[in-house]
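Exam prep: given the inputs below (a chain plus 3,4-dihydroxyphenylalanine), describe the expected output before reading on.
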Amino acid sequence: MNKIDIENLRKKIEEYKAEKLADVEELRVKLLGKKGEITKLFEEFREILPEQKREFGKHLNELKTIAAEKIEQLRGELVDFVEGGDKTDLTLPGDFHNLGTRHPISIVREEILDIFSKFGYAVAEGPEIEDDWHVFTALNFPPEHPARDMQDTFFINPDASDPIILRTHTSSVQVRTMERQKPPIRVVCPGRVFRNEAISARAHCIFHQVEGLYIDKNVSFADLKQAILLFVQQMFGPDTKIRMRPSYFPFTEPSTEVDISCNICGGKGCNICKGTGWLEIMGAGMVDPNVLEASGIDSKEYSGFAFGMGIERIAMLKWLVNDLRHYFENDTRFLWQFHSVV
Ligand code: DAH
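Solution:
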């Protein structure tokens, strides 16, 4: 007996692979059976010089443990396999799992953010549960403005003097951004908003918006117009035109509502654009100086524009979805239609 024999046998045991339980039994007999290799080594051990016993004894015992463990391990693996075989027929085809698809709202949100990120806009987010200041007061809503009414806004604690509400628009994130960041500011703010509306094909109490805000020195209405034009041409195609109608929002002056030329009929008039050739897609305007000042930005030094659009609306125009409720019901027959849209 020598150490090299023991070492070689150890390696052989460790590398041994069994395909069936019979192989394991064969290995056991070969190593530990009456005439097994390890049994023989133990017999030889009796003959060796007493001063060598200690060292060889240690190696031999280790070898025996390794062999026993290996046999147990192989047996365990193969028993699992054989017993599992009763329940699992490995030749059966696998179960088919439906892969999820991206939700159309996520697809459009990402597309909008991608376009604006190419223009150098960062993404800013804010809380859905808000206070009156960020949703209304800092945005120049007068105290008696109807949007503050419980008819339109969800109140968490309606009786409190400083109410906590669910934000009715993502314009609140403009305020939060201006409060913590000095101009130049260029952000797009995606998020979920809430309004106390009855649910129908055309209205929902939850929907999504993307707000945009650009504040710097000498920002003009022409910059706003160009930013929106570039955006809609990337979103709806290079031939898309825009039209700006005068409008009113408390937080912008002047304010405008922006229409795009109907991407269905190309502006000729169809039932989607109700014969007008135009589709409304967003509100926008120059940030009212009161709004800048409320967030600590000097309105004599800085000016800016803001815009806000509904993601559901853009997705509706893109894919002709005719009922807002589809977006929220998670009917896989609806969602699956977007599986090929990357
Ligand atoms: N917050 C408005 C809404 O929810 C949308 C909007 C209009 C946002 C004009 C703006 C804007 O930033 O300038 O209806």
